[in-house]
Amino acid sequence: METAFSLVSLTVTKILQFSGLAFNRNDLKTEKMEEKALEVYDVIRSIRDPEKPNTLEELEVVTEKCVEVQELGEDEYLIIIKFSPTVPHCSLATLIGLCLQVKLQRCLPFKHKLEIYISEGTHSTEEDMKESAVCVSS
Fold first, then answer.
1. Which of 9, 40, 82, 129 has the maximal Cβ count within 10 Å?
2. DSSP string covering the chain
3. What is the pLDDT of residues 30-47, one digit of tens each?
4. pTM of the entire structure?
């Protein structure tokens, strides 16, 4: 009897998945993380560059691809941002990282931990910057 129930349950689940009426939990989780990443990106994209009149988005310092969100627990997330300074010798890269940190701490409505890095190969003092990476809990 248990075997028959398991087969019926599995069959119904598969039919619902194929029909689009039910979603795989991993698909829903991935979609939720993508939505959170877009929410984070919407907050940081309007930050103005300290030396230029443009936003970080306009200068391609931040892009949608540079934001990753992972779920740590119920309503708690790890946000990882990897930004690219405009030039390899940018003297204000750490200031940009701090601007990202402060803006997110002030604007995000959910509990999060934050890791901000400079993208690999985009800054001449990248190794020194890694040692002082911004890691924050809110």
1. 40
2. -HHHHHHHHHHHHHHHHHHTSS--HHHHHHHHHHHHHHHHHHHHTTPBPSSSSSBTTTTTSS-GGGEEEEEEETTEEEEEEEE--SSTT-TTHHHHHHHHHHHHHHH--SEEEEEEEEPTTS-TTHHHHHHT-EEEE-
3. 888 899 999 999 999 999
4. 0.69
**73: amino acid identity, one letter:** G
Contact 110, 77 (CB under 8 A): yes
Residue (of 131, 116, 122) closest to 78 by Cα position: 116
Residue that has been written with the tokens 């892009």 in this structure:
63
Task: Estimate to the nearest angstrom the gap between the alpha carbon of 7 and the chain centroid.
Answer: 39
Distance CA 106, CA 16 (A): 42
Residue at token pair 């190794």: 127
